[in-house]
Specification:
single chain; mainly alpha; 9 helices; about 0% strand; RTL1-rel; zinc-finger; zinc ion binding; zinc
């Protein structure tokens, strides 16, 4: 039988006696010495002072910090050191910046602020990443509005061409390249009115019947 087993048996033998421990503190101390790993408080202190968040979220990081601090009983770490160590171990980002701006006075206050800030950031990202539904196109059974841009341009062109005379038919308002009248031939029985007007002006008779010379 090893010395460890003998010691444990001795502790449990003492537990059968109702008066073996004078106070509750003595009972806790006996249990700690019997079952606590060697130098556990020293290891917990070193682990807490070198604590880093890494890839963990704030909740898991705070849980590790609380566990390490709870193991340091004999010579507890002061609150200022706890706060600075916790803040320094946070991952660089908005949470760490916010804590250094607020600078809480206790470790629990620092943990609470860090969790609140992380929750706010998650909510903001959630609202930003939500896809927005496209608005449905309302279709009515009535007539669709007309596009008046071409009509306006045509009217503007017509007003500008009102003083233009066609040298093919003699009328105003369009060019010869746009004229749809038949080509006038000399000696034909039918002539276009415009061409007849031009001929009358050029070779026709005067009001008294005398031809122009």
């Amino acid at each position: 039988m090893s010395w460890r087993t003998s010691e444990e048996l001795g502790v449990w033998t003492r537990l059968t006696d109702a008066t073996c421990f004078g106070t509750y503190a003595e009972f806790k101390e006996e249990l700690r010495q019997a079952f606590e790993p060697p130098k556990n408080e020293f290891r917990s202190r070193a682990e807490f002072l070198d604590l880093q968040q890494g890839k963990h979220d704030v909740h898991a990081y705070a849980k590790r910090a609380r566990y390490s601090v709870s193991n340091i009983v004999t010579n507890p770490i002061d609150e200022a050191t706890k706060v600075v160590t916790f803040m320094k171990g946070l991952r660089d980002g908005p949470v760490k910046t916010y804590l250094f701006r607020e600078y809480p006075s206790t470790l629990e206050a620092a943990i609470t602020l860090a969790m609140q800030e992380e929750f706010s950031l998650r909510q903001a990202k959630l609202h930003v990443n939500v896809p927005r539904m496209a608005r449905p196109v309302m279709r009515t059974g009535g007539p669709e509005p007309m596009d008046l841009s071409n009509a306006t341009a045509a009217g503007h062109q017509q007003r500008n061409n009102s003083s233009v005379r066609c040298f093919r038919c003699g009328y105003t308002g369009h060019y010869a390249r746009e004229c749809t009248a038949a080509v006038y031939k000399a000696g034909a029985d039918v002539a276009m009115p415009g061409i007849a007007a031009i001929n009358n002006i050029t070779h026709g008779a005067s009001r008294r019947g005398a031809p122009y010379c």
